[in-house]
Amino acid sequence: MDGPSNISLVHGDTTLGLPEYKVVSVFLVLLVCTTGIVGNTMVVLVVLTSQDMHTPTNCYLVSLALADLIVLVAAGLPNVSDSLVGHWIYGHAGCLGITYFQYLGINVSSCSILAFTVERYIAICHPMKAQTVCTVARAKRIISGIWGVTSLYCLLWFFLVDLNVHDNQRLECGYKVSRDLYLPIYLLDFTVFFIAPLLVTVVLYGLIGRILFQSSLSQEAWQKARQPTGQGEGAPGSCCSRSKGSMSSRKQATRMLAVVVLLFALLWTPYRTLVLLNSFLAQPFLDPWVLLFCRTCVYTNSAINPVIYSLMSQKFRAAFLKLCWCKAAGPQKRAACVTASSFSAVQETPGGTEKMQLGSIEASGPTAAGSLHCQQEPHFSAL
């Protein structure tokens, strides 16, 4: 059949027997997949087990982590066995199931990225509306819809792949339809789950950046105007420092999510471009080292997000450390970790002690009666 080039995320290499290729591919894929599986599992655990991590944005990040786990398990790990053995070993059912879960993870990750970008846009550009729209319950419904619709859509791949037998009797899980039928389907998938989400996220992050920039300018001007009256940034009990901290937290969260989107675009571009080009070329380009590079970029995209959270989010970093400490601690400390659902920070002030816990402010000491209370940052914007 005049089938498309077989360059899926797992199989289709033409030089699997090269020893150096086996060593490099197995080492790279195992390293990336192991790191990604551990990291994404930690993301799911810290969000599910920490009450203060239950926010709409983090719900979407859990959805993204689960999708990345599926990609790493369904695409990365079979690639290791394919490189070691040299042919497909999972049979016909494995061919259908693994291909299905590959595209399910890929497409859900793209939709999850789009969903948390829209949530960020509403939370920052329309904060009043966000208090009713950006809720954990609504996020869960959206995530359920994403997984449900994408699961149905990916059923299409059950009719597009099958086991192929080469002249040397080597089994390969590949496409069974002609290029004329496959190409429109791939272009639809490429447009709906890659190009369109990226275009929307670019526009939304541009609008978010403009709002944050304008807010920073207006906040600085307001602080300077209040400075002569003694109610400036450094005045005890003033709302200015908290407002500034809230804006800084929003910027940090937005930068982190923007980096996730940027890496998604960069790391998926080589593979998507290669598949698109080979869909039109009469003689597909199937250099095994290029294919390995493209696939490793995809696996890296699924593995790197927890690293980004740890580096750019203080809250995630503290939650990761807390989870690791609980796992390494003895039974008594582990029980204490389970019991403790939050932490408190105590800050000394000139008139007394101010205790902050779970986003609420309680003033104690001589300043309690005359303390100035500010409206706290809505829970939906916390990471």
UniProtKB/TrEMBL annotation:
Q: Which InterPro entries match?
A: GPCR_Rhodpsn, GPCR_Rhodpsn_7TM, TRH_rcpt_1
Q: Where is the G-protein coupled receptors family 1 profile domain?
A: 39-309
Q: Known Pfam families for this protein?
A: 7tm_1
Disordered: region residues: 227-246
Subcellular location as annotated? Membrane
Membrane-topology annotation of the record: Multi-pass membrane protein
Superkingdom as given in the UniProt entry: Eukaryota
Compositional bias ranges of the Low complexity kind:
237-246
Asked if the Swiss-Prot or TrEMBL record annotates the protein with the keyword Magnesium, the reply is: no
Chain ranges passing through the membrane: 23-48, 60-80, 100-122, 142-161, 181-208, 252-269, 289-312
Does Signal count among this protein's keywords? no
- Which controlled-vocabulary keywords does the entry list? G-protein coupled receptor, Membrane, Receptor, Transducer, Transmembrane, Transmembrane helix
PANTHER family per the UniProt record, alphabetical: THYROTROPIN-RELEASING HORMONE RECEPTOR
Q: Which family does it belong to?
A: Belongs to the G-protein coupled receptor 1 family.
Role according to the record: Receptor for thyrotropin-releasing hormone (TRH). Upon ligand binding, this G-protein-coupled receptor triggers activation of the phosphatidylinositol (IP3)-calcium-protein kinase C (PKC) pathway.
Protein name, UniProt field = Thyrotropin-releasing hormone receptor
Q: Which organism is it from?
A: Microtus ochrogaster (Prairie vole)
Query: Which gene is this protein's source?
Result: LOC102001036
